[in-house]
Amino acid sequence: MNRIVLAAAIILLALVARPAAAELLDRPSEKVSGADWYRIDRPELIQISEKVLAMPDIPFDAREEIIRVRALDMDWDIAAMVYQPVDPSKIPTGADGKRVGLFLLHGGSGDHRSLDRFARFLTAKFGYKIVNMSYPGRLNLADPSRNWPGDTIRPDGSVRTPIWLRGEEITRDQYEVVEDKEESRRRRWGTLILACAKEGTTFYNRMAGWPAAFEEGGKALLAKHLPAGEFSIYAHGHSTGGPFTMLFSQRVPNMAGILGMESSPFGTLYGSMTRSIQEIEETWGAGFNCLRIRSWRDTARYYGYELIQREGVEALERLAMVMEEVFESWERSTRSAQFKAENIIHFDSPEELTNAAKASARRLNLTEADTKKLADQYVGYLSEVKGPGAKPVPPLFLAITKNSRDHAPEIYRQVYLPGYAAMKPAPKIRLVQFDAGTHGYSAAEPGLPLGVAPVGALLWHKAIIGGFFKPAAR
User: Fold this and answer.
1) Which sequence spans correspond to the domains of the chain?
2) What's the CA gap between 458 and 387, in Å, rounded?
3) Does the first or last residue of the chain, that is N or C, have fewer Cβ atoms within 10 Å of its Cβ?
4) Buried b (16+ CB within 10 A) or exposed e, 62-73
């Protein structure tokens, strides 16, 4: 009986593997700025998704880990989940002969729990060992459930603030609440609610220091769980997580590739896109010390765009119902952090990154030379590392969905792919355009119970095993 089950599993895996080759590698592609561009239509997506979801599950363990790192003379608690097969021999080996490890970074609104279901799926179906990290301050370390209480903006005028260190509290006297109604930003986000830290406060010092803590925390987690020599690491950052996976791509020696799916690029490229295509002249106008407090408006700006793609402008005929749906969705989402400090990197703000570095330098009484070094480090997070001895940007396997607002095809054609092509050396890129899905790529839709996520995962897997990420011989 066991042999029959094993044989059936092998046959099923072979069948699952076949669509990836047929649908991607064996069909003509379009060349766009040196990248190979493929398309997969909806019937094919449904077919591949069904076969991936039918694959047998690999038993695995998942556990929370919180490590403490030291950055800029401050302690920071960095949270993550680590997933791995119960039987370590189930961890697959890539084309380079190293075991496969994944590094996941969530999008702009939450913490690592927003990628928990996807991480469990990836480990169960493919056997990867995964580090799924929260941005500094995002997980509610004060509550065992990790849920944030109430709403982000409280009746007394105070707002939700990060927990960068267990036991540390950001009190109301440490910030001012500011409403930003500048027209171009308001058209994108609605009124922006900002909590702007007062100089000299713990809040101010944390807002000046978190970029360095992000780098140190990620490096520490990966060195511990996916060490060089044993693992090759493939990084996926959803949305805002994208610029941060790019940050790590050249700073972690065994990071072998980028797995994109609705993933933003380096901050310089994203900022160029918002200025040239979305026509926002000043991409991010707030100071480094201003924490963006998300609200129902952030649900609305995605919900409205995606609704028009599905229903057309007729959706406005039921505007009252749409507004109710937005508020209901927002209420369900408030257990996640719903605040954001990362815009100075995501939206390309070298001036505010420099100001943040200078603020940290003043606190640490750094010399002029060391202040410049720290400022260069911060601004360097916006783009690729250049110069002699720099590790090249590794290959990127990217995927975009049909109904995404920020990852439309023209954005890649006009800005992102030309931007990567201009790098020296230019990274190898493959892009797949799905004829289904939204920015939240694992959201269910007819025929796709886990969205397009299973298809993207299978394509990533075939690329890892098939040698797409293996460095070319020199």
Assistant:
1) 2-295+338-466
2) 35
3) C
4) eeeeeeebebbe
pLDDT at residue 7, rounded to an integer? 41
pLDDT of residue 23: 46
Q: Is 405 helix (H, G, I), strand (E, B) or coil?
A: coil
φ, ψ (nearest 5 deg) of residue 324: -60, -40
Q: Give the separation between CA 381 and CA 384, rounded to whole angstroms.
A: 8
Which tokens hold the place of 258? 């980028």
Q: How does pLDDT run across 288-327, given as a tens digit for each residue?
A: 999 999 999 989 988 888 888 888 888 888 989 999 999 9
Sole residue written with tokens 């995927």: 399
Question: What is the pTM (predicted TM-score) of this model?
Answer: 0.90
Sheet bearing 35-40, strands edge to edge:
30-32, 35-40, 429-434, 396-400, 255-259, 231-237, 99-105, 129-133, 74-85, 60-71
Cβ atoms of 20 and 458 closer than 8 Å: yes
Contact 340, 240 (CB under 8 A): yes
Query: CATH second-level architecture of 2-295+338-466?
Result: 3-Layer(aba) Sandwich (3.40)
**Contact (Cβ atoms closer than 8 angstroms) between residue 127 and residue 89:** no
Strands (E), 57-128: 60-71, 74-85, 99-105
Segment 174-202, tens digit of pLDDT? 999 999 988 878 888 899 999 999 999 99
Q: How far apart are the C-alpha atoms of 107 and 114, rounded to whole Å? A: 8
| Continuous segment of H or E residues that includes residue 56 | none
Alpha-carbon gap, residue 404 to 437, rounded angstroms? 8
Residue 166 has phi, psi (to 5 degrees) of -60, 130
